[in-house]
């Protein structure tokens, strides 16, 4: 296997595994930019994964190929509902945001596993029959070298992730809504003085993160795992948080960081088929994504400054 063959093998896999991380990380960017720390992305992904798989199994016969796409919408709704718990606790009740996020993770896992147990009387669901399909992008797939690398056997979910990243960049940095969002996260008192509702903006941001986190969990479950159990989402939400920090709270930075973590995840799965890497003990490849996550969260790769009001509850009129 030549070096080019290795790239043809590993890069599509990296993009495939990065898609759910990209969406969830961008959801985290929205909340942090508004001044809310969302540690609960893992729990939101879990609920999104569980709800999409259960929906897929129940309605695949009626909806056919549309099932996984409608499953994304279902996961988005459940993600928003779960995120509202964080919004009420952290924004309205001004509870500690880190503790609230951790509680959300525990709640999401407990509710998902309990629901699966009640419906299927076992710890995990059956495997789904309707998954996201792959396709070649016309014209682009014929480009020498990069065509086969980026535009052959592409998942529509990967395209969705890139589109969301670009749209998020435009919304946050090129629209009045984005300006208000960033103002609320940097100096909420000044934003409030100018007539911007801090509470409203933070609620909207948390709900956006819930929607994107739910979709991220659904993509992981329906495109990668194929079923749902207690260990289906095992750290991907925290990888998304690491990608957000690594990307310096910027949508395109989070995109690049998520691709990096997606590469690590892909390597842990397909590494046994790649020359030289196949000689590395499998356990090292399996722990690689989590080690990189810890290093990123520990600030090993550069320093990044979070929005100034991130994690600080806003009390109207108080500096």
Description:
The protein is mostly helical and 319 residues long. The protein has one domain (3-297): ABC transporter involved in vitamin B12 uptake, BtuC (Orthogonal Bundle). It is 69% helix and 1% strand. The protein contains twelve helices and two strands, in the order H-H-H-H-E-H-E-H-H-H-H-H-H-H. The protein has helices at residues 3-34, 41-63, 67-92, 97-120, 146-150, 156-174, 176-186, 188-193, 198-225, 236-246, 251-270, 282-297; strands spanning 134-135, 154-155. The longest helix is centred in the first third of the chain and has 32 residues, at 3-34.
Mind describing the biggest β-sheet? 2 strands, antiparallel
The tally of beta strands, per DSSP, is: 2
How do the SSEs run, as a string of H and E?
HHHHEHEHHHHHHH
Strand content: under 5%
Count of domain modules: 1
Topology:
Layout: H1 3-34, H2 41-63, H3 67-92, H4 97-120, E1 134-135, H5 146-150, E2 154-155, H6 156-174, H7 176-186, H8 188-193, H9 198-225, H10 236-246, H11 251-270, H12 282-297
Antiparallel strand pairs: 1-2
Membrane topology: Multi-pass membrane protein
Subcellular location: Cell membrane
Protein name: ABC transporter permease
What are the defining features of this structure?
globular; 12 helices; two-stranded antiparallel sheet; 1% strand; ABC transporter involved in vitamin B12 uptake, BtuC; 319 residues; 2 strands; mainly alpha
């Amino acid at each position: 296997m030549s070096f080019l063959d290795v790239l043809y093998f590993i890069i599509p896999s990296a993009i495939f595994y990065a898609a759910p991380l990209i969406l969830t990380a961008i959801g985290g960017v929205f909340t942090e930019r508004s001044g809310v720390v969302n540690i609960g992305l893992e729990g939101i992904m879990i609920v999104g994964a569980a709800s999409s798989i259960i929906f897929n199994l129940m309605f695949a016969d009626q909806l056919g190929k549309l099932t996984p796409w409608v499953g994304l919408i279902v996961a988005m709704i459940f993600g928003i509902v779960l995120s509202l718990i964080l919004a009420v606790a952290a924004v309205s009740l001004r509870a500690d945001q880190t503790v609230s996020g951790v509680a959300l993770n525990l709640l999401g896992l407990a509710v998902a596993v309990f629901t699966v147990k009640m419906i299927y009387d076992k710890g995990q669901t059956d495997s789904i029959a309707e998954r996201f399909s792959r396709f070649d992008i016309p014209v682009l797939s014929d480009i020498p070298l990069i065509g086969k690398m980026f535009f052959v056997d592409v998942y529509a979910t990967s395209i969705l992730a890139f589109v969301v990243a670009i749209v998020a960049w435009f919304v946050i940095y090129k629209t009045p809504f984005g300006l208000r969002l960033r103002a609320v996260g940097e100096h909420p008192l000044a934003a409030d003085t100018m007539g911007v509702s801090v509470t409203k903006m933070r609620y909207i941001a948390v709900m956006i993160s819930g929607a994107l986190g739910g979709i991220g969990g659904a993509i992981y479950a329906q495109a990668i795992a194929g079923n749902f159990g207690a260990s289906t989402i095992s750290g991907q939400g925290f990888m998304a948080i690491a990608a957000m920090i690594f990307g310096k709270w910027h949508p395109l930075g989070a995109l690049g960081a998520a691709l990096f973590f997606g590469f690590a995840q892909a390597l842990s799965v397909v590494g046994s088929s790649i020359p030289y890497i196949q000689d590395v003990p499998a356990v090292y490849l399996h722990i690689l994504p989590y080690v990189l996550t810890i290093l990123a969260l520990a600030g090993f790769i550069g320093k990044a400054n979070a929005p100034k009001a991130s994690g600080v509850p806003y009390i109207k009129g108080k500096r």
